[in-house]
């Protein structure tokens, strides 16, 4: 039990009825105090909502919902709620006071529990949870901190602050409510919880009880949430080989990623827990509707008055021996653990008091820096959470949340979700520091500026001013119309590497990643140059060019010089693209046939067959060129000389 004499609530009389004696615990939404109900003269636990949350209607409604949800339940494994009201500016609710420890404290004290102890605790949890599910209530925040182990052996579920009617739409919107280590995959990914989400949390607690550790770990809460959403909970025996196969199966069934593969509700799981205990020949704490402990007469510790007794634990016997006969049922193994822990705690307090007297200065310094005004807190990363969930996470750290959040646009975080904090996540600040949430307004519209033809640096500045995130490396490509070093345009590159052009004036969103296209200038003109010179010109642009293919005759380009560069690519051409240089074989020379003495027709046919052009210079009509009377006297150039293929040969003829 934690107390604080500096707490202004201690000593107050709430609503003229509940006298606050000491502080028990402090959470993200409220602080729990030990108080005396002066009207009924009994000890009670009073849960008072933090004052700075009183103006938040959502927190207040959730706080009141806890009282209403728990009040609907009447079960020995559920903490009773007696009263609810408003005192000054804070809402409060009154619950039964259970001296003892939480399951979290038990695990911290003992580490892994035995299968028998685990089944004993799980049977009690699921029994109370079954009553809640039957009443149409989903707890949504099951965790070891909310399982109470009373000194007398009773086990109860408390803190229905996040409970919601199972018949209603149980979606939590974008909010991730509950403790991250016990959230079901569907609550992480879709914000939806039903009875099967509670079953998942029970399965995680079973794993923790059997192994002494949680199945998923991470430095940040979102890392743990990601594992819950995407990974399968391993069998407890992978961490503790002594765990029986039957309990492995029970945990894997309760923590199946698909809700359809889990027990439908706590009643179904309870039946299997009892059957598993029977198959392991394990005896649960007791039998009957109140499994863990039954008292027939008041049991009052010597140092605590009868006002600590819980109503409903009394009964009288009409049999032989009269009402004074007392019978105490067998205590559970879990009850013994809780009591042993309590005794160990009492001895620890005595030792602590002695140490404190010897080293008061050191103890004061430890308090100052550990829990007092000098305590330091590393601000949690709440990016992507709802403001309510983010605020609750920060409050659990002992930080205060600013009443008015800041806002900013963001491409990735949807509107209404938390974009960050001020100071930012990861910064170490004093406990009770005020942290302001930064809430996303969603993406901010913008348009693509005109960058074509602008120098690269100017184009980048234009895109930056428009709110785009420009890649450090531009894409270079050949462009005959844009000068080297100037922008061609803008593209967006998808996850598959596909490029999508963003034309000037197109609608877009600030924060969109884009890449700038920059011109390499035109392809180099290499016609008529040496191949080595041509290759160097291409390499200067990051392109490859090598001699290849078949050389060709060319009457204009000397042998060995480049005729042209070719490539199989369609373009646009970018660094790394390869080209082939086709070189010239020089002019194509052919020998002029000897045609002197032949008819004109014969001469023309022979020259044309040699792929020369023919011009006949004679006064002889064409219809007489092959009559044998017209004879070719010679050609220009002369027969036997070598001329470029296609050259026109002049033919001379007479009668």
TrEMBL record:
SUPFAM superfamilies, sorted: Protein kinase-like (PK-like) (SSF56112)
Catalytic activity from the UniProt record: L-seryl-[protein] + ATP = O-phospho-L-seryl-[protein] + ADP + H(+); L-threonyl-[protein] + ATP = O-phospho-L-threonyl-[protein] + ADP + H(+)
Domain Protein kinase: 18-274
Species classification: Bacteria, Bacillati, Actinomycetota, Actinomycetes, Micrococcales
Leader sequence segment: none
Membrane-spanning segments: 349-369
GO molecular function: ATP binding; protein serine/threonine kinase activity
Protein's recorded name: non-specific serine/threonine protein kinase
CDD domains (UniProt xref): PASTA_pknB, STKc_PknB_like
GO biological processes: negative regulation of fatty acid biosynthetic process
Tree of life domain: Bacteria
């Amino acid at each position: 039990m934690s107390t604080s004499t500096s707490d202004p609530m201690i000593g107050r009389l709430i609503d003229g009825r509940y006298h606050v004696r000491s502080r028990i615990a402090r959470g993200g939404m409220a602080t729990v105090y030990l108080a005396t109900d002066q009207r009924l003269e009994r000890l009670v636990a009073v849960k008072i909502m933090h004052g700075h949350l009183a103006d938040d209607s959502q927190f207040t409604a959730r706080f009141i919902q806890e009282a209403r949800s728990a009040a609907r339940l009447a079960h020995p494994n559920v903490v009773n709620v007696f009263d609810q009201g408003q005192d000054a500016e804070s809402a409060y609710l009154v619950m039964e006071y259970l001296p003892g420890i939480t399951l979290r404290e038990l695990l911290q004290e003992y580490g892994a529990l035995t299968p028998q102890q685990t089944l004993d605790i799980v049977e009690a949890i699921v029994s109370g949870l079954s009553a809640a599910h039957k009443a149409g209530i989903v707890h949504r925040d099951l965790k070891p901190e909310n399982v109470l182990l009373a000194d007398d052996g009773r086990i109860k579920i408390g803190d229905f602050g996040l409970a919601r009617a199972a018949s209603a739409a149980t979606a939590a919107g974008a909010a991730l409510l509950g403790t991250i280590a016990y959230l079901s995959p569907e609550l992480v990914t879709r914000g939806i919880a039903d009875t099967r989400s509670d079953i998942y949390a029970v399965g995680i607690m079973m794993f923790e009880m059997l192994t002494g550790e949680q199945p998923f770990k991470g430095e940040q809460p979102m890392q743990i949430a990601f594992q819950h959403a995407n990974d399968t909970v391993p069998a407890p025996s992978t961490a503790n080989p002594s765990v029986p196969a039957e309990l492995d199966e029970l945990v894997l069934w309760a923590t199946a990623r698909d809700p359809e593969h889990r027990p439908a509700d706590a009643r179904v799981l309870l039946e299997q827990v009892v059957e598993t205990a029977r198959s392991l020949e394990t005896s649960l704490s007791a039998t009957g509707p109140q499994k863990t402990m039954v008292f027939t007469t008041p049991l009052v510790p010597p140092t605590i008055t009868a006002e600590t007794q819980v109503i409903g634990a009394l009964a009288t016997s009409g049999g032989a021996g009269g009402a004074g006969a007392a019978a105490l049922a067998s205590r559970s193994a879990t009850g013994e653990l809780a009591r042993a822990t309590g005794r160990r705690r009492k001895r620890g307090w005595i030792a602590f008091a002695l140490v404190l007297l010897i080293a008061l200065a050191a103890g004061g310094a430890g308090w100052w820096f550990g829990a007092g005004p000098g305590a330091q807190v590393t601000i949690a990363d709440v990016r992507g959470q709802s403001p309510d969930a983010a605020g609750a996470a920060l409050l659990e750290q002992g930080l205060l949340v600013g009443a008015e959040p800041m806002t900013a646009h963001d491409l990735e975080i949807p509107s209404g979700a938390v974009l960050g904090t001020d100071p930012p996540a990861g910064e170490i600040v004093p406990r009770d520091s005020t942290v302001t949430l930064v809430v996303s307004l969603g993406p901010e519209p913008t348009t693509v500026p005109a960058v074509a033809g602008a120098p690269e640096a100017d184009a980048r500045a234009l895109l930056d001013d428009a709110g785009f995130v420009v890649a450090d490396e531009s894409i270079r490509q050949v462009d005959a119309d844009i000068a080297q070093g100037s922008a061609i345009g803008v593209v967006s590159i998808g996850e598959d590497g596909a490029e999508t052009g963003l034309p000037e004036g197109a609608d877009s969103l600030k924060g969109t990643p884009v890449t700038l296209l920059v011109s390499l200038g035109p392809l180099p003109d290499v016609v008529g140059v040496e191949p080595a010179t041509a290759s160097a010109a291409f390499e200067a642009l990051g392109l490859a060019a090598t001699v290849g293919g078949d050389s060709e005759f060319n009457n204009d380009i000397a042998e060995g010089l480049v005729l042209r560069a070719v490539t199989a690519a369609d373009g646009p051409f970018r660094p790394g693209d390869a080209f082939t240089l086709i070189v010239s074989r020089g002019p194509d020379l052919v020998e002029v046939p000897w045609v002197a003495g032949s008819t004109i027709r014969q001469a023309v046919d022979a020259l044309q067959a040699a792929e020369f052009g023919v011009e006949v210079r004679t006064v002889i009509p064409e219809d007489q060129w092959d009559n044998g009377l017209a004879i070719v006297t010679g050609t220009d150039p002369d027969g036997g000389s070598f001329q470029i293929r296609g050259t026109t040969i002049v033919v001379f003829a007479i009668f």
